[in-house]
Specification:
Helix content is about 25%, strand content about 35%. It is α+β, with helices and mostly antiparallel strands. Strands 6-7-8-3-9-10 form a six-stranded mixed sheet, sandwiched between helices. It has a five-stranded antiparallel sheet with strand order 13-12-11-14-20. A five-stranded antiparallel sheet has the order 15-19-16-17-18.
Length: about 350
């Protein structure tokens, strides 16, 4: 099922929730709508489902205009953050509900419903829990029941609104893997909303990053993380260090550090900001180059194979975050209060119109 979202806009009074949204979603694709609270991602999902109406724009399913078609007729499966299971029904009855309420002519036989429900319960590994009630299940199990219920009616599209938001970190990670495998088996066009960057990058085929009702960037997880097209995307997708400096004829200067920025070869003496991820900071105990910046280690945190460091630059008084391997940390024998020399391995420069100084 291909989905085309064309010129969608939505406002509540003077507040623009969505502003001219255009997305093409391919058949069988798993797409994440990612953004901070209030960015419009849930409103967009509900408009696709037919649960809300856009002020303008068109939604197409397989090139058919379904903008004015009811939610019931769109054959969309919707999974809510807080499961929305029927508390008075057991697991089997919850999953079977959508099949049992179909019009008589379209309703499967009792035997067919039973076979379908158990097939789905096996898929979500809950066949042994068919007679339990939602109150007798863990959060992760309830969410799997909600997914099975959504899939029971064989939807054309599966929509998930922060499906793992109410779960703890370990369960979320397990369900992310499970959802990816489930999607690979079903090949159903799926869209899920999340504000969790790691979740979107781990699960989705493509990520749509929203900010204040507008699309900032669309791309594969690798594209949006490694090639962010704006300061917002760079900052939103993980920790980042800022180096305030100036651009001049294709060079970016931060103190004694000089970085090539050939895309700005026509700019002279302009204030700019360089963005660097913590793992892209090189650390040395002995200065070997004039373009290394002195800094003092203010905090160390060893977490498994990665060591996180907080440093304060001597030249600007700004704080930096860096990540190095445990092996590198042990070789350097770093200590809190010690002076080291840092240098960005690579740096993405944005000019003033791209960010707020």
């Amino acid at each position: 099922m291909n989905i085309t979202i064309k010129n969608i806009a939505k406002s509540y009074g003077s507040f623009h929730v969505l502003d001219n949204i255009n997305i093409d979603i391919h058949s069988g694709e798993l797409v994440a709508l990612l953004g901070p609270s209030g960015s419009g991602k849930t409103s967009l999902l509900r408009i696709i489902a037919g649960l809300e109406t856009a002020d303008q724009g068109t939604i197409f399913f397989n090139h058919q205009d379904i903008t004015n078609i009811s939610a019931k007729e769109r054959k969309v499966g919707f999974v809510f953050q807080h499961y929305a299971l029927f508390r008075h029904m057991n697991v089997f009855e919850n999953v079977a509900y959508g099949l049992k309420v179909r019009p008589r002519k379209l309703r499967p036989s009792k035997k067919e419903i039973e076979e379908k429900v158990y097939e789905l319960l096996r898929l979500v590994r809950l066949e042994a829990f068919a007679n339990r009630y939602p109150s007798q299940l863990s959060g992760g199990q309830r969410q799997r029941v909600a997914l099975a219920r959504a899939l029971a009616v064989e939807p054309n599209v599966l929509l998930l609104d922060e499906p793992f938001g109410a779960l703890d970190a370990k369960v979320r990670k397990e369900l992310r893997r499970w959802l990816r495998r489930l999607h690979d088996d079903f090949h159903i066009t799926s869209i899920f909303v999340t504000h969790d960057q790691e979740e979107a990058l781990d699960v989705a085929d493509r990520v749509v990053i929203l900010n204040e009702g507008r699309i900032e960037q669309i791309g594969s997880p690798e594209e949006v993380y490694n090639h962010p097209n704006s300061p917002f995307v760079y900052d939103f997708l993980g920790n980042v260090n800022l180096f305030h400096g100036r651009l001049h004829k294709g060079k970016f200067y931060v103190g004694n550090v000089q970085v090539d920025a050939p895309e700005f070869s026509d700019i002279e003496n302009t204030t700019a900001v360089g963005y660097v991820r913590p793992h892209e900071i090189n650390i040395a105990k002995i200065k070997s180059n004039s373009d290394e910046v002195p800094a003092v280690i203010t905090h160390l945190h060893v977490a498994g194979s990665i060591v996180h460091l907080e440093l304060k630059r001597n030249d600007a008084g700004e704080f930096l975050e860096a990540e190095i391997t445990k092996e590198r940390y042990e070789n350097l024998q770093l200590k809190i209060g010690e002076q080291v020399f840092v240098k960005p391995k690579q740096l993405k420069v944005f000019v003033p119109e791209d960010y707020s100084i």
